[in-house]
Amino acid sequence: MDVLRPALININGRIYRRNTIKEDQYEPEEEEDFSYMGPPASSPLEEEDGSCDSRPIEPTEKGFRCAIDVPSVLYKYIIGKKGETRRRLESDTKTSINIPKPGVEGQIVITGSQKAAVSSAVTRIEVLLESFRRKQPFTHFLSFALNHPQVQEGFLRFKDQVLEQCSQDQGIDESIFQNPAKLHVTVGTLVLLNDLEVTRACEQLQRCQDIINTITEQRPLLLDVTGIEYMNDDPALVDVLYAKVQVKDGSDKLQAIADRLLDHFVSTGLMVREWDRVKLHGTVMNTLFRKDASDVAGRRTNMKEREPFDARNILKSFGSYHFGELELKAVQISQRYSTDCNGFYTSVGLLNFS
């Protein structure tokens, strides 16, 4: 880690610096410690207020209490190996931390005799959870569906012609082409670990209605899917080839919607910003799909085994290929590794443009 540029984490509007500490007592994961980068203070236990922002600390007969909704898959990171992490947190903050049984969805409850002590424990737990949450693979994604029949037909013609003309080029085979029913533009990815988090994400999507209405004027967007481009620097060693997507009238409305949606979800903590702007693209070929390097569920077994393909002839022959046009009427939260009755990803939340 660059000590002059430490990794920062935003939790409830407060910025923390992440310091990595490797400890022999906790083998399953790398233990991490965090330092608050906000206004200086004395010992957290000396703070009179002891508030923990959005987490209400309630008085009890014996002191104070705070309950945190935590997906069951993350319990193990607060417990630690043989309970070591929980014991250390309880000892350091002079609190008691009650965690539900593994696999049982519920709340982690922190109790203590001092309000500031409970606040300190809550903050440390939230920072740990945020760190380990970032290590989870994404479960859902915000997307624009491109699987209109016209675009699917254009894609299938593209696939047939590429296989006919370029199948002898290195790394090209039928398995690396996208499923036409799942053509889409990804706005951003989400890690939603239980039903409560899925509900929260759907509620946040609905709060974007005014944003969408302002840009679209409550009308669908006519999109044009024309041209192909690649993700990396060398056209002879490509992992992702994508179709370019733009609004038919040449406006930046789709880009504006995507960027505003990303801004909103990042501000809620449901997404992590990786780029300043959303890259509007619909993947048509991806080496992650290659069957001989996947398990029975179609997922890559080892990212390092990824075999690129030579896209130079494809770019030369199909650089301006027209896949088709469609009316975009909605944005949705799609579930990864799922399929609905139409062959697209299962939608858990939908926001219409009109």
Largest sheet: 4 strands, antiparallel
How confident is the prediction overall: mean pLDDT?
Answer: 86
Rg computed from alpha carbons, rounded to a whole number of angstroms: 24 Å
- Biggest sheet, spatial arrangement of strands: 4-5-7-6
Portion in beta strands: 25-35%
* Helix content range: 25-40%
Number of helices: 8
The SSE order reads: EEEEEHHEEHEHEHHEEHEHEEE
**Secondary-structure class:** alpha+beta
- The coarse overall form would be elongated
Distance between the termini: 47 Å
What low-confidence regions span 5 or more consecutive residues with pLDDT below 50? Answer: 21-52, 293-301
* Total count of strands: 15
Quick take:
The protein contains 8 helices and 15 strands. With 354 residues, the protein is an alpha+beta fold. The chain starts with 7 loop residues before the first strand and ends with a strand.
Keywords:
4-stranded antiparallel sheet; elongated; 15 strands; 26% strand; 27% helix; 8 helices; alpha+beta; 354 residues
Can you walk me through this structure?
This protein has 354 residues and is of the alpha+beta class. 27% of the residues lie in helices and 26% in strands. The protein contains 8 helices and 15 strands. A 4-stranded antiparallel sheet has the order 4-5-7-6, with helices on one face. A 4-stranded antiparallel sheet has the order 9-8-14-15, with helices on one face. β6 and β7 form a beta hairpin. The longest helix is centred in the middle third of the chain and has 19 residues. The protein starts with 7 loop residues before the first strand and ends with a strand.
